[in-house]
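May I ask for an example protein's residues together with how it folds?

___
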Amino acid sequence: MAGQTLTLFQQKPDWVAERAIAFEKLILKLCKEPMKLKPLSLLLATLLGASSWAQAADLLETFRAAQANDPVFAAARATLQAGQEKLPQGRALLLPSISLSANSTFNDQTVQSQGAFPPSDNFRYNSHGYGVNLTQPLFRQQNWLVYSEAELQVAQAEAQFRIAEQDLILRVAQTYFDVLIAQDSVQLAEAQKTAISEQLEQAKRNFEVGSATITDIHEAQARYDLTSAQQIAAQNDLEIRKRALQQLINAMPKDLKHLDKGFRLEAPQPADMEKWVGDAQSNSLQLAIAQAGAEIAEKEVARNRGGHYPTLDLVANYSNSNANGGSFGVGSDNTSKSIGVQLNMPLFEGGATQSRWREAEANRERARQELESTRRSVALQTRQAYLGVASGTAQVRALQQALTSSESALEASKLGQEVGVRTNLDVLNAQQQLYSTRRDLYQAEYNYLLSQLRLKAAVGLLGEDGLAEINQALH
């Protein structure tokens, strides 16, 4: 049996096989003792359960599922594809345009003569023809500006899509960690309920022997009922968080990998907030979009000013027409070819050109102010993200120490209750403090990881690699 068990585990991940080998002697011993078959089955269930947990989804897998299923990101991808079409549309204004026309006409013509000759007559005949026209712009200042604007619009669309990618990473990470903290809250509520239940039973026993008062029972019962309500709320919140993740990946989330309690806390590198702000000013995607918008507004001013400029085109025509009859009963077959240049000079359009020019100048000023506002917002967001990582590191460490102190305080309260220097309420309060501290620690750890992602997003450097680094903290 032991040999079959080890063969089974050799097909599992390496760490599972190592754990099975480590328990080989225990398994052999239990196999020799029939009364201990139940502990053996529990041991095997634990190992197999650990193997199934190894198949839990991690942060990267969840992100890739969201990439394929999130409708918000799909809309951003379609927006990028639409924005990229601005460039060929702008280029088309600089290339020749060719048009083909054709016609076929039935003619019914009656000629009334005023004299003796020619006599009055009625002519019915069919005429048809076709023509080809080619126009090649030689000088159209506005078209060149539209083409240069299209290049900036494509750059904006690409930057907007990269922002959508970063936003998806942040939304996935936030939703993923929301599920984890909700699961932690449920587990903490259950553990706290169990501990209070034990305290309640102890209070009842002490009351029966006369070493406790009815007040101790009521206090423990009230705390137990409150924790039961908190447990229900935590379970409801967990279901909501799972549904939020389902909205991203279009499937109910399976088991998720949890945060490794031994993950490393790292301060931002470099540890200079203004250096991060400087990088954000150079690499921020929001700033790149605003900068492109300001340049487009500047070109719009020049383009509308060019409404007074002449246009020069190369024009070529070829046409052929055929009629099987005419006014004198004689058909015709005509061919025409022409090539030349065409100059157009706008003179007056009712003041519309001047109005569009003034409108473009006002929009240019608006774009400049929006650029400055974006620059300041990016600096603020970068400082906030930097401080979030820096303070998050200190907060996690402080809560880790507070958790150790809370555990010691609970043990001291229990010991004090046994010797009569602490009351049942003191123990309940110590338990409440312990579980609150543990929950705050979990939340601080998740916030610290999210702050790392937000800092990279602020400087325009957040990508799948950054998410993979966070993913390494999960097990």
